[in-house]
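Design request, tokens follow.
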């Protein structure tokens, strides 16, 4: 097996290859002067099972993935597995208003043209993967998040909304801790309202878990509601740290003690590795 790392996921791809004890090839990725992507896999042939590790966010990385799929196939890959740590467009999983495209489906259909298996991690909507015709699996980061926070004295695991309640349960159960969820109302793309916490937060160390942090609006509002309810410390762990518009700075300057995410998107707080769970899934076949 050969692991090919795209430009979005080099460290993760390298770690994965090291765990699996297989060859790692880093694709060379640059831009043409007009901004178009250029990529090249610098080796003689790829006469083996090939795993490409590359995000499909932002758009330029989606294009790079298409190019890598073609390059890998031309070089003789026996099978192509796509590891897509953060699947861009998964939140646009349906037509919300007439005239819109079904964006997630469009992306799946294009990626599906050159792959034999797809592995994602905590994709926003798992049903999106049904648009692939090849076998697919969505891995859960709950185990690595729970492991990371096991010795940190957490008392309660919460999700910021009911949509992520299952995630809080999964992490809470693995840590042997109670779990619950807050009530969130989304007011706009950037503004959210979190209702005052109903659970007993007084004197507690709380861990909030979510699939992703984008603007940080959800988590900042959740942390402030929990502090108001008497929590002594509030940490957040998400799978995907998208962090748009200086979100990391706003989060670290808020009512939060710790901000951590998995390395599905590589950034300064992506210290929880999902390489081990990806390796396990690849070994299982
Ligand atoms: C929503 O369903 C997701 O699980 C996240 O809570 C949301 O996408 C976070 O967005 P933001 O950081 O912009 O509030």
């Amino acid at each position: 097996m050969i692991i090919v790392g795209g430009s979005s996921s080099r460290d993760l791809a390298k770690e994965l290859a090291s765990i699996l004890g297989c060859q790692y090839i880093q694709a060379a990725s640059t831009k043409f002067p007009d901004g178009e992507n250029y990529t090249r896999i610098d080796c003689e042939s790829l006469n083996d099972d090939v795993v490409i590790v590359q995000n499909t966010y932002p758009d330029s990385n989606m294009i790079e993935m298409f190019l890598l799929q073609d390059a890998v196939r031309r070089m003789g890959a026996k099978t192509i597995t796509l590891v897509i740590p953060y699947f861009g467009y998964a939140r646009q999983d349906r037509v919300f208003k007439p005239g819109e495209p079904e964006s997630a489906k469009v992306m799946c259909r294009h990626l599906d043209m050159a792959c034999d298996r797809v592995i994602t991690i905590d994709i926003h909507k798992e049903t999106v993967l049904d648009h692939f015709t090849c076998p697919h699996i969505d891995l859960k980061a709950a185990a690595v998040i729970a492991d990371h926070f096991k010795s940190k004295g957490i008392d309660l695991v919460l999700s910021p909304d009911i949509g992520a309640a299952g995630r809080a349960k999964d992490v809470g159960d693995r840590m042997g801790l109670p779990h619950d969820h807050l009530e969130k109302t989304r007011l706009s793309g950037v503004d959210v309202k979190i209702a005052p916490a109903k659970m007993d937060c007084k004197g507690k160390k709380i861990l909030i878990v979510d699939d992703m942090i984008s603007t940080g609006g959800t988590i900042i509002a959740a942390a402030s509601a929990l502090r108001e309810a008497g929590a002594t410390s509030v940490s957040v762990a998400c799978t995907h740290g998208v962090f748009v518009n200086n979100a990391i700075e706003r989060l670290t300057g808020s009512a939060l003690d710790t901000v951590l995410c998995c390395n599905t998107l590589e950034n300064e707080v992506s210290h929880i590795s999902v390489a081990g769970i990806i390796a396990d899934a690849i070994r299982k076949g």
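Comment from the thread starter after seeing the answer: thanks! The chain is about 30% helix and 25% strand.
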